[in-house]
């Protein structure tokens, strides 16, 4: 006869209560949420929480009184050794140039940022000072054209939000916005367009001398405003990386001309982020294959619309107090009001859109080859085809009198993208900025290539 073993008694003293588990530090056994979050997700959220100081200032989450002092100290500490043949602007010259233009009605500062955005991809933001505190902005997908004989000499330049002028100083990185470096910076000059009358010129009785004197007194900001309203802008760029005499032409076609701001978008884009979680894109200043307007950022002044921060840990109803609910509701109302103000004015908080900038208008950008110092040569082949070539113009070729021949135009250059292009201020690559800002595990968007044909 087999003797049965007695069943183990279930003594109440052997049961682990919630208090006992908590005292022993076994909080993982008392979770109200199942299953526990993945390790990769926790790491990705930790990276976002540990946002760098520059990224917090750029996003509007931290305020500083003197942006120039703040960013100057940060970029000075991040300087890389000079590489022969790679253009670099002396740090003190960079500081003095910004001081000369900031807050001035005669300022004509510009910056070209390389922005490697996780959703919009690598693109280049051209910002032009339009008043003492603000700048109009254009997003250019493949950078500025550098070959006068290229088959793709034109670019699409998408008009974006008006930025604060201190955004010209930014080099930073984060998971939600990617990396941003100063590709080139300097001062611009607005050139006149031939055969056009001045806007608002109702003084027909004025003499030619008075008219010439009034034009001479115009600042670059006033010239930019006039050209912008005409929808034809011609700019000569005096920078460090762009060659001498480089002249841009921006043109807005009648099909793209509108004066009203776009309405609130109906949907948002999503992207898989590191750790398997989805990141919501509140909108992008760069449109790729759709004409639908994107949602503007909730806060900040970046060249692209702000991505949402990682979602907070889910809270149960018992965790939410009346004070929490009231605070969340007030924050939502304030955020919606800020979104609506940005959308209506097409200007980030602190910037002034007094030039009539409209979000997401498409401009055509190209090199003005004649103004940049090239001449057009046309030849006819044996088969009858006409071939056109733009060559650098020569001047002062009278060697008999001892005049040295000087060349205008510039040597061909190609914008190589995030793996090649370096900051003109710090000499850093995009990957080095990500490392300096403590961004780990960032996944850039692929399928970008330089225009070489």
TrEMBL record:
Residues 228-239 have a biased composition (Basic residues). Residues 113-248 form the DNA ligase D 3'-phosphoesterase domain. It holds the Pfam family LigD_N. Residues 208-225, 252-263 have a biased composition (Basic and acidic residues). Residues 201-340 are annotated as: Disordered. InterPro entries: LigD_PE_domain (IPR014144). This is DNA ligase D 3'-phosphoesterase domain-containing protein. It comes from Knufia obscura. The lineage of its organism: Eukaryota, Fungi, Dikarya, Ascomycota, Pezizomycotina.
């Amino acid at each position: 006869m087999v003797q049965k073993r007695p069943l183990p008694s279930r003594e109440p003293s052997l049961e682990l209560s919630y208090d006992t588990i908590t005292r022993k530090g076994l909080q993982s056994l008392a979770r109200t949420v199942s299953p526990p979050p993945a390790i990769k997700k926790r790491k990705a959220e930790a990276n976002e929480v540990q946002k760098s100081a520059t990224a917090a200032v750029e996003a509007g989450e931290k305020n500083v009184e003197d942006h120039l002092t703040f960013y100057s100290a940060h970029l000075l500490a991040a300087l890389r050794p000079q590489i022969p043949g790679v253009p670099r602007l002396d740090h003190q010259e960079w500081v003095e140039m910004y001081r000369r233009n900031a807050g001035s009605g005669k300022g004509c500062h510009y910056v070209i940022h390389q922005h490697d955005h996780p959703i919009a991809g690598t693109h280049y933001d051209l910002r032009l000072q339009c008043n003492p505190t603000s700048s109009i902005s254009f997003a250019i997908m493949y950078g500025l054209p550098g070959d006068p004989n290229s088959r793709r000499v034109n670019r699409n330049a998408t008009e974006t939000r008006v930025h604060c002028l201190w955004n010209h100083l930014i080099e930073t990185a984060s998971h939600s916005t990617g990396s941003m470096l100063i590709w080139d910076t300097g001062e611009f000059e607005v050139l006149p367009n031939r055969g056009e009358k001045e806007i608002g010129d109702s003084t027909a009785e004025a003499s030619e001398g008075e008219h010439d004197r009034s034009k001479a007194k115009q600042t670059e900001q006033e010239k930019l405003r006039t050209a912008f309203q005409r929808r034809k802008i011609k700019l000569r760029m005096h920078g460090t990386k762009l060659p001498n005499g480089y002249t841009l032409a921006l043109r807005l076609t009648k099909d793209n001309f509108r004066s009203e701001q776009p309405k609130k978008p109906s949907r948002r884009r999503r992207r898989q982020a590191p750790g398997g979680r989805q990141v919501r894109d509140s909108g992008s200043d760069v449109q790729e294959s759709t004409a639908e307007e994107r949602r503007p950022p909730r806060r900040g002044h970046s060249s692209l619309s702000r991505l949402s921060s990682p979602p907070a840990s889910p809270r149960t109803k018992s965790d939410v107090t009346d004070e929490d609910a009231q605070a969340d509701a007030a924050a939502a109302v304030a955020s919606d009001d800020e979104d609506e103000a940005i959308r209506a004015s097409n200007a980030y908080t602190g910037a002034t859109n007094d030039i009539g900038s409209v979000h997401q208008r498409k401009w055509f950008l190209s090199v003005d080859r004649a103004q940049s110092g090239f001449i057009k040569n046309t030849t006819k082949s044996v088969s009858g085809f006409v071939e056109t070539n733009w060559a650098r113009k020569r001047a002062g070729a009278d060697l008999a009198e001892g005049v040295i021949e000087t060349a205008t135009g510039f040597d061909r250059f190609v914008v190589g993208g995030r793996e090649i292009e370096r900051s003109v201020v710090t000499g850093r690559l995009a990957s080095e900025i990500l490392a300096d800002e403590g961004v780990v595990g960032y996944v850039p968007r692929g399928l970008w290539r330089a225009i070489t044909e």
